[in-house]
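User: quick one
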Amino acid sequence: MHANDELKLTADVLVIGGGPAGAWAAWSAASQGAKVILVDKGFLGSSGATAPGGTNLLYLPPDEKLRNEAVSQRMKEGGYLSEPDWIHRVLDQVYINLERVETWGYPFRRDENGVPMRDHLQGPEYMKLMRSAVSRAGVRIMDQSPALELLTDEHGVGGARGISRQKNRDWEVRAQSVVIATGGCAFLSKGLGCNVLTGEGLLMAAELGAELSGMEFSRQYAPSAAFGTVTRGRLLNWATYYDEDGNTLYSPGGPRPHDFLPTMLRKGPVYATLNHADTEEKQRILRQSHAIFFVPYDRAGIDPFKERFPLTLRYEGTVRGTGGIRITGEDCATTVPGLYAAGDAATRERVTGAKSGGGAFNASWAICSGTWAGEGAAKHALSTRSSANGRRLQAAGRGGMSRESAGPGQSLDTASLIQSVQREVFPLDINYFRSEPVIQKSLERLNALWPEVYAEVSGDSRERIKAREAAAMAATARWMYTAVLARRETRGMHTLLEYPNLNSSLQHRLTVSGIDRIQVYPEGKPHAQVNHELLEAAQYHVHTASRENESREPDRWMAAAAGEGEGA
Amino acid sequence: MWLCIKVCPTNVFDRTETGLPLIARQEDCQTCFICEVYCPVDALYVSPYADIKQQVTEQELVSVGIIGSWREIIGWGRGRTRLAEIDETPFIDRILPPQGTISS
Ligand SMILES: Cc1cc2nc3c(=O)[nH]c(=O)nc-3n(C[C@H](O)[C@H](O)[C@H](O)COP(=O)(O)OP(=O)(O)OC[C@H]3O[C@@H](n4cnc5c(N)ncnc54)[C@H](O)[C@@H]3O)c2cc1C
Ligand code: SF4
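Assistant: Done. Structure below.
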């Protein structure tokens, strides 16, 4: 990195990302007595998938019957990859945290009996409140300061480096624990609030040997106005859908069939009108709920209750998927000592399984995993009784970070790389209507693109950040499609045309790891230990780690799975 | 202090020498409307169009009353009611079309 008068800081815990997960992690770590720094690419309070709109939450009062029902329903919807204990943990924890949010001043509505309705949060209000809670807890917040790479030595993670982009200055924070809370990866598809979510957290963690899980559960597209970006879609429950000529395609109201929009949009334009909100009172109620839904229509001069508006689907990547960094325990630790993951950056499968289903789980998971990761990170840091300053740490970033020219004309064309990746992950015909040969070909093209990320990155802070984002998106796409091909069945949100049924021999989560060479194996199988052993070995070094992994028969399990999957 | 420069998640604005915000990287705008919510002087208008540039004059916007409207709906600013206080979301399924089942 540049030696441009770098800002150097030390803390016990560094939190990377300031959406709900990062905010809760920072607050929780600080509450344990740790010295905490939080860095965000944008701004804690406005940045990420929650802030501009808001979220419905999984929230139930402590009523055993209600909760048990919710748990069994989720187990079923999530394709039995979630764990009842974890769902209960979330229900318990989110209840406590939302009570806290109320005492901090969030004005939850009450019903006729005075019972607080804590199952929805308006994004700007919630995240502004979280920013003050985090500040009050003594956390140092660095906005507009994306992290680009982690620091590491033989003991695990030791901090991170990045750029304060409005000051054009590099920063380095040394910390015994790091929480990755960078959200999911939405590939710059312009879904509401999602263009800051480009997967660097996943890449940074993987560069230290952390594993990912559930990357195949990344098949979610969200509807927005064809001309706009607002991907909050619940109010479409009041819609009737039409084709170009005004013929009705679907009109009963309520949730539309799952494949309806992708199937229809493949054939031609689809329009909607919220005509089921047919009284002024109903219209007022909807406008006062997901208010942001109406902003694009109001500005375009369309009355959405009476006039037809065109729809599109925007790809959401892992954001409303369920995959991310694999966590190994209740404290949201990863296989890398000192490294924790929370929110959409972590796999949510223990709670949501194979389907994020209607959202509500992700927001509650962000709150809970943030709380647990922050606490775990603080305990880890405080138990070491020394500062990360004395460690001989090295920066671990590789893809999209090369400062050396490999020859004239060899510098990285960031915009072109991003477009090439988007061409593989955006099309419904590749990524929604998934089929084995098509995904296989797409993955081959992505793998062929991958070496480009090692070309020289020249230029200013903006270009350096974009190059790293491009590399992270390319890596994420490859992890996704590698996992897709290993799951030869249909489960939760994942489908493969050739394997339309659930395959009981695949009733486990799939782990992927590696960067240049990607491996995939069932969670908990021997491969899962590889990086852990490496970390414990005295001469652990990131740059040799990926090469070492390559010699360990990466495809051994893949071949076995292929045999099992057939004919089920 | 110009909050839009600080809060824009994708860093669209620069600060000019006089300290005023300048839309420096419109192509990075993700149309999240957040700068409007934070603008205390209602000086911003985010076009709803994600991929095309809308040609509008300030006068037109002022005359249709759209400038500052999103901040007003969120209910920030003196004397306003916050949207969160009157949020109807917990109750919307009461008016779900009869054929519909519970949404999530
Ligand atoms: C339109 C929409 C509606 C949704 N509705 C619901 C719902 O109703 N219910 C529900 O449960 N879920 C919903 N979700 C999902 C929910 O918003 C997410 O699960 C939640 O925001 C995750 O929180 P997070 O903190 O992990 O990530 P985010 O809120 O996305 O925040 C991630 C943060 O990390 C920062 N960041 C990214 N990269 C870096 C970097 N390199 N360095 C530093 N910082 C970085 C970003 O700037 C951002 O602030 C919705 C999502 C969308 C897009
Ligand atoms: S609408 Fe555009 S300029 Fe305004 S905060 Fe969002 S991304 Fe930034």
